[in-house]
Request: fold
Amino acid sequence: MKVIGLSILFCLFSIMSNAQLAEVKSGVYTWSELPVKKGTQREGRKIMEGSSPHFSFLEVHATTQEKGAKPAAPHTQKDIEEVIIVKEGLMKMTMDGESQILPAGSVILIPPMVEQSLQNVGDGPLTYYVMMFKSKAKTDIERGKNAGGAMFINYDNLEFQPSKKGGKIIYLKRPTAMCEEFEMHVTQLDQKGPSHSPHSHVDSEMILVIEGETQMSIAGQTYTGKAGDLYFMKSNEFHGISNVGENPCRYFAFRWY
Reply:
């Protein structure tokens, strides 16, 4: 009997159930409080699942593969787009026959109908986040192809742009098959204080903390998050993030519409 990887199980369950999902809640999703589902040389954490103002289906989960874990068979998503973020370890990612080795901090954009597989090729555990989504609007495969299609974004090839408060790394800002625009960057705040004044926008947004201690206000509520924790803000919700630790903080910001 074949052993199916945890990421595939999460995917199959989500696709079967997304037609009846409620909207995901704004707030913080705390890494240390997530239930852990263990498999053969793997463990998974479901972070969120539901719909959102722009997506009929939105799911985020994290998977850890042990060293030497057998990779899952190559597969495609018919009507789901994915973004993978390497949290720790070394990943070999293959899309439509092209492979790259990607370190922590790297990102992969996987449009619908692109064959994908991944493997832990490092000397320790490989942990990665997977964001899966389907637009409420009509999927536009050609729009995604014209904007660049599938993408490997190797952290080692990115440039840090210093600023007065710390700095930023730009990952992508472009249309995709599911989004009129999808934008990702990493912000670093070197000192205590806010990144910027609280604000709102039509884009939905997620913040994934990768270092330090943060505080986020969302629609009048205040939350705290550290490395591994994820904030979610719905479209037009007033929000703002601050560094509240003695050391620098860093976080991914994802925005889309």
Observations:
- The mean pLDDT is 93.
- The radius of gyration is 17 Å.
